[in-house]
Amino acid sequence: MKQMTGTCRPRAAKLTDVTQGSSQGQSVTVRGMVHALHHMGGITFLTLRGPKSVLQCVLDREIDLQEITEECAVEVTGVPRKEPRAPGGTELAVTALTVLSRPAAPLPVPISKRQLKLNLDTELSLRPVVLRSLRERAVFRIQEGLCRSFRETLHGLDFTEIHTPKIVHAGAEGGSNIFRLDYFGRKAFLAQSPQFYKQMMVGVYERVFETAPVFRAEKHSTTRHLNEYTSMDFEMGFIDSFEDVMAVETLFLQHAMELLASECASEAEALAIDLPDVSRIPCLRFDEAKELAAEKYHRPIRDPYDLEPEEEVNIGRYAKEELGSDFVFITHYPSKKRPFYAMDDPADPKFTLSFDLLFRGMEVTTGGQRIHDYQTQVDKMLSRGMDPGAFESYLMIHKAGMPPHGGLGIGLERLTARLCGLENVRYACLFPRDLSRLEP
Amino acid sequence: MKQMTGTCRPRAAKLTDVTQGSSQGQSVTVRGMVHALHHMGGITFLTLRGPKSVLQCVLDREIDLQEITEECAVEVTGVPRKEPRAPGGTELAVTALTVLSRPAAPLPVPISKRQLKLNLDTELSLRPVVLRSLRERAVFRIQEGLCRSFRETLHGLDFTEIHTPKIVHAGAEGGSNIFRLDYFGRKAFLAQSPQFYKQMMVGVYERVFETAPVFRAEKHSTTRHLNEYTSMDFEMGFIDSFEDVMAVETLFLQHAMELLASECASEAEALAIDLPDVSRIPCLRFDEAKELAAEKYHRPIRDPYDLEPEEEVNIGRYAKEELGSDFVFITHYPSKKRPFYAMDDPADPKFTLSFDLLFRGMEVTTGGQRIHDYQTQVDKMLSRGMDPGAFESYLMIHKAGMPPHGGLGIGLERLTARLCGLENVRYACLFPRDLSRLEP
């Protein structure tokens, strides 16, 4: 009888082992996709695409090229040798080639080109193929590094990962931007945030996090919004101040930039990413930041309760020019514009113990301290005309006792887009959802 | 101006440092929730609940106990000392206690009891509080370990994590168990699986994984089904056989059991978990397994094309009794019962190159090799009366060329439930969704 023992048959070598030169001079067999084919003076150069790198393969005249096209899956055998002009400094002198599968039609776009220069709509429609471009896929390796370093940072700080429902009976953020759903004849919604659930879990594990999709039925099309995105959320108990939350986010960013510098150097290079210095992140109060930016860039304040996108841009510019930082924490947002669970500042209850993090002029995080006292929470709901009875299962935790706590949510796609210098957040989402796009 | 530098103020010691005895004899300050209070002959024992452990605190007569109740958040200062009868072998002789917050009402259930013995419905309704019970929360630390070891295993094997949309234009699994949604006036669905997207991403990164919610509108209530669950999915290119996929799953299970044994020993003990031996996992063909179980347990085969739940139980029993394994791979499922993207066995196209993994008699994984050739895929769709035109963006990858590939999906809650010996999968989901339950 057959048994699995966890042994994976290493039929083929890893492409990165070859490009990193660890098998120089010995014959190796590797597998990959034919990314590009170039014929130059009787020699054929085949660029083999692996998961993280490409390998330049030089094909002998004896190898039959008739059957080979771009995006064939192939197995090649050859001897790696130093070649300074090849990507990674190594090329493979191929002695044998087997085609494992072949495409049915030529590619709709030449993905082996350095820049595709497609318009957004074409690019998104062709995403399943366009993502094979080295530049495109580099973005999502950066994104993977950001998400992994988020989890690593939090795991190292004794946070526990949780999985909370996305089909919910009430929205956490309120407002109209919530998707409705028929749930076996009952009205249900798609979660705008794991807010209620992560707070519930603070009572259980003290520190929790989740990286999961959230849904916002934004009825406008901007370069900053997605209707579905990945939210990196955490929530922590026993805080002394909402600054404890900001400190953990700073630690995450520090770890992320270190990880990207060491593990995603080639992707950062392909995208010409300038990894920001996050050793110190300046903090400005909401009011103060508004005024500083208005003064410096001569733009009058129109909405005293919120930051307009243009104001965020100007505050970002201010942070860069005056404070030398790509990031800036904006603290003490007006109570009016924050959700009902935000804790008001006892020193001035018109403001909250909350913050946003701006990165190069765009909000990438919202966080703050939450109300933990039952009566305080009920009173704030009543003062906003809300019915506490509709939030019975949420208020159960306040009634049962909660430590002082706070947390945040980071938009993974926005963070990725800012870091990679992408002007539209859709470019930082594999298969974005917007007003008009539901496919692929 | 204030700046964040990533320094977290360590006002309080970690509870685990105290329980593990690293601060014996020195005064420490710790924070936590009052899990239990017991008065015995003039001495008060306070059980302090931390994220991963509890600490027995002994309170002096001088400390005012009037204000202290269960589920107060407190800060206590004291000197740790050895006490064999205390959990972890250490207790804290408290010299000072500060209440940081207090509950508004007594708990609806006595969560400090070892066993709560609630009926399922009561337990789920009170989940936000019930999860504070040490036994209840142990389940989700095990779950965290499973999910983390899944990611660690795959990251170590050069898989890239992806995030794919949950609002989709077509279902991957077909059938009627799909949630419908109004998407700005268009018909949309909630993803039953990331199948199409992870296949698309095999063309990009060769090996990908995702741990994310999936949605199934199952219209029946069983102990095995959830309407929303966490699916741990991976997909890998350049396989020689679907057994390569099974080998990676075996590696994952081996890593998971090692991780749980070393990092979740106290949770495993609390739940009396017997970690299974996964050094070898037997494989049986679908037909063969059906017959072996039918014969041994005298239960005639009724449906030749699928495994009934009772048959899975019997095959699991057979695997345990005859093959000495809690797990068993069942391979070569009938083509009829597998989705349109499953690759048929060239040796006998009535069957597929696919598998399920049964764990103690319940399916916890479905996987297999997928069709990579464009024409083969189109033909199979047509033979099932499907319209290939409706799957244009999916078929784009087959047209553009795909390596031979396969993958699987693991139900995290089912795996957790089986491992923890929970008779209903709802117990292995923090806030389960079923026909009647949408809250909390």
Give the full name of the CATH homologous superfamily of the largest domain in chain A: Bira Bifunctional Protein, Domain 2
In CATH, the topology of the largest domain in chain A is named BirA Bifunctional Protein, domain 2
- Largest sheet properties of chain A: 8 strands, mixed
Q: Give the quaternary arrangement of the chains.
A: homodimer
Strands ordered across the widest β-sheet of chain A:
7-11-12-19-18-17-14-13
Shape of chain A: elongated
Structural class of chain A: alpha+beta
The rounded Rg of chain A comes to 26 Å
Task: Compute the number of strand runs of chain A.
Answer: 19
Largest inter-chain interface? A-B, 133 and 132 residues
Write up this protein:
Chain A is an alpha+beta fold and 440 residues long. Chain A has two domains: 15-101, OB fold (Dihydrolipoamide Acetyltransferase, E2P); 134-428, BirA Bifunctional Protein, domain 2 (2-Layer Sandwich). Chain A has twelve helices and 19 strands. Chain A has an eight-stranded mixed sheet, sandwiched between helices. A five-stranded mixed beta barrel of chain A has the order 2-3-4-6-5. In chain A, strands 8-10-9 form a three-stranded antiparallel sheet, with no helix packed on it. The longest helix of chain A has 23 residues, at 134-156. The two termini of chain A are 43 Å apart. The interface between A and B is large, with 133 and 132 residues. Strand 13 of chain A pairs antiparallel with strand 1 of chain B.
